[in-house]
């Protein structure tokens, strides 16, 4: 395919790739059939939306997209056991993972139970001392004091810990979404759309989505018995946060979860999320960007480098003062996490470059790397190299790490396979993210085998230099109306990327540094159109130097347009991703 605008190599070293001919034809047909702007139709065509599906896609309704919870294996058993515990005033414990999905899943259950007059115990393991998922000592301790343990966002592979809880007399329910093994643990119910004997089309749900469906089933059972369940629509802010933060694809039911959840969050009725938005200096209505880059990292910070239960406690609390205190603690921990992450990321990039960036996988491992940041460093490494990434912290001959994938490459399945082959001590996850434990001596062989499996799925085939472009427009065409119409195709995130447009042959009318690393710019076209822009972390790069010292040169630029509400005045703004000289590329 010809490079978009002829940009074979941009100032950041990337080749611009635009829509193919089939997408162009589909977009034109949608424009003619619907009367929507061409750029909106380009986004719809890229998502394979037909003319007859446009109205439903632009206004997704949970009523239309929510499946019968009973379609998931073991769901009815899980619902029945939960209600039995509720009616019998049994002692319930919630065992959750320490990330956003686990915290939000736990908060969903705690909130639902509390609305029915039941207080449950929250238990979240310490990342360093206990590691991911249920462990035997913790489950035995919980089982001696509780009748029912509900494991959320974990448990599918926890055979021994669940058996230990059962031996102490407690029932266990697992609500999870991670890849399952050939056999299931001895729980009363394992509700997981990704267990191997499941044929559900809901494998894209995060754990909070699975928990929400169980609560839908529980409310339905309560209605059948003449009782009223809690308001589940008011809890969709938690589901939305977990879905975005866990990088679940924003398609189908997930998309409806996030769309509705953002509307709930905008009402600022949950003390924890309100306090978190305030410490994160959110001044506009929440978007998927805010969930993924402002709120999610702060909720995660407790599990990464602080007390593991801080995030879940924040999301579940009803007390505004407690929420404010917890949000401040998490904000401080997040700042500390960012400093640690920056050091590890620098070393990880150096290792990856030394190994080469042309393979299907990038990976790095280091002694003493904090296990709480390896996941987010893997995500940064994946974005930087545009291929699956693994980052591992080594300690006394053993490595614990995290892996992140790119669209279309099922990383969890490959991690599970090399675990079965004996190359990993432990490993599991889902398509976009996974965790692993490895003997340091086996590390090179494990990564080589993982690379082979990922290559079979096409990982690395496009190379790290490709930049996707959805279409072209001029600064004069970047209107508030267009941006608002484009946002109807959202929310944007994993599986539904935010649109990126190219602005061809523009001149720079303003360029000034913002802090040490960022650049504020203004671009103009020859029709009198103008747009302000921000380029993050580019001042010390060749692209930053070229734009700052432009000397009147003209550029093709690429980025995402959004609404800037700074000072209360709405105007279009571009987040610049890339640039290239407007003349023919070498």
UniProtKB/TrEMBL annotation:
SUPFAM superfamilies, per database record: DHH phosphoesterases
A Pfam entry, by short name: DHHA1
Domain DDH intervals: 91-243
Domain DHHA1: 362-450
Domain of life, per lineage: Bacteria
Occurrences of domain RecJ OB (ranges): 469-578
Coiled-coil ranges per UniProt: 316-353
One GO MF term: 5'-3' exonuclease activity
Alphabetic keyword roster: Coiled coil, Exonuclease, Hydrolase, Nuclease
Record-level GO BP terms: DNA recombination; DNA repair
PANTHER family reported for this sequence: SINGLE-STRANDED-DNA-SPECIFIC EXONUCLEASE RECJ
Family: Belongs to the RecJ family.
Record-given protein name: Single-stranded-DNA-specific exonuclease RecJ
UniProt source species: Rubricella aquisinus
